[in-house]
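Issue 218. Parser rejects a valid record. Input:
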Amino acid sequence: MKLPHESGIEVEVKCTCPVWFQTNNLSADIVQPDDIGAHINVGRTYNNMNMSTEAEEAYMKALHLFPPIIPGRSYTARIAPNHLNVYLNLATLMVKNDSRLHEADKMLQTAVSMRPDYVQGYINRGDIMVKLGRMKEAIEIYKTALKYEPDNADVYYNLGVVSLELKDPNAARVYFETALQHDPDHWQSLYNSAIMIQEHGNANDWPELERRLQHLEKKNPTDPKIYFTMGMLDMDRKDYISAEKHIKKCLQYEPTFRSALFNLALMLVNNLNKPLEALPYLNTLLQNYPDHTKGMMLLGDINVNVQKDLISADKHFKRVVELEPDNIQANHNLCVVMVERGDLFGAEKCLTKVYNMAPNENFTKLAFVEKDI
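Output the parser choked on:
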């Protein structure tokens, strides 16, 4: 799970100097060997050059210059907050390797023990707990951060994300809304709260959902997820013309957006009566996601009902059955293909098999494929 705040202090800098020039001149940054800030700057430079080993060595040199840790003693007056970033930067390097997550956590524990108000240390510790699957511990750590920065929107957002992981959408919604109270432009909270409103399906909330989506669009007009969600809202409103426009705009920015490809094709077939226009979207979907069974089912439906291409339909339905042997609809649709071919004996055997699989089902036609969101 990717959290929205920056998990480190590193700043990406594009450097046009050749690597040999940069590395040979790093020593110029260190005027005095006991300059903590200079070692941190060298580490940051190495990190920006993707030289993680050298960056870690530089950060460790800075770390060794810190005063010794005395249990129970606060270092608030002696350690500059920006110097504590060496712990943060080391932890950021370590978490790239899952086997070092506990080591990274110890780094951050040390940092917050030296300065209990070091909020970024708590945030990054919470992120590590999430990676370790220790969600309840992550919540407690994020809540500790809020004791020092009760208006930190990123922390409320992270609490919302963890609440979703714990299957508590009500708590998640409260955290997202609280984040927005402190930062009305907090993009991730705006987006996730919009998704939750759309999925809730309450028509009374649609005006607020539309307002949030429009706000997101102004902030980031090239984000495909915004237009997809707009399209899904349009579909809920049964405004299929507008939905088609928004989902196509989504695909302009991300041509392989899985759910956009499928739902646009589904809408073209079911709601706009333009099944042949769905074909290029389904072909793109299956080229990029070859095991997308709902896409294969919809394509097979078009093969049978519109194109009368029984060979292709048979291929698609058989592939679904290979992937999902218990898929009743795919097995039934294979029987329909046999009927269309005039193979009544084979169809009878096929339908008997389907009946034994689902004796309470009443199949009369190819069923529409449900939404895949």
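Fixed in the parser; the record now loads. The chain has 19 helices and no strands.
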